[in-house]
């Protein structure tokens, strides 16, 4: 049950299908938030995920600088409900940040975080750089990590 990190064109059809299914389940269904989940940024991104018996249980989308922001970014971060509270989210974010710093050679990371997760992201060094605002009816803040 290890981590996989792939560019878009390295994903198998079934991996792509499963990650889009899980992202939709979390961000559209679980959060009761109708929005365009497939936003056109996946082909330019890296996809970090962990599987358990072929099921994607944790995921983040790593966006190089210039895709969403001037800085590199991390988005679509989730751990499946039944796997939460086991430290997987911390592992996921650490691996995402390591890839950005060591492989993409970026030092600044900008994210759009759900407001209730500010403390989690601050534990990795992110600082809040905006007021709380509604994005798809969910309170968010912009946060920046500078190394």
UniProtKB/TrEMBL annotation:
Specify the protein name: GNAT family N-acetyltransferase
Domain of life, per UniProt, equals Bacteria
**What is the scientific name of the source organism?**
Bacillus mesophilum
Looking at the record, the residues that make up the N-acetyltransferase domain are: 6-147
Select a single GO molecular function from the record's annotations and give it.
Answer: acyltransferase activity, transferring groups other than amino-acyl groups
Q: Which Gene3D superfamilies match?
A: 3.40.630.30
Q: Which key words are in the record? A: Transferase
InterPro entries given in the database record = Acyl_CoA_acyltransferase (IPR016181), GNAT_dom (IPR000182)
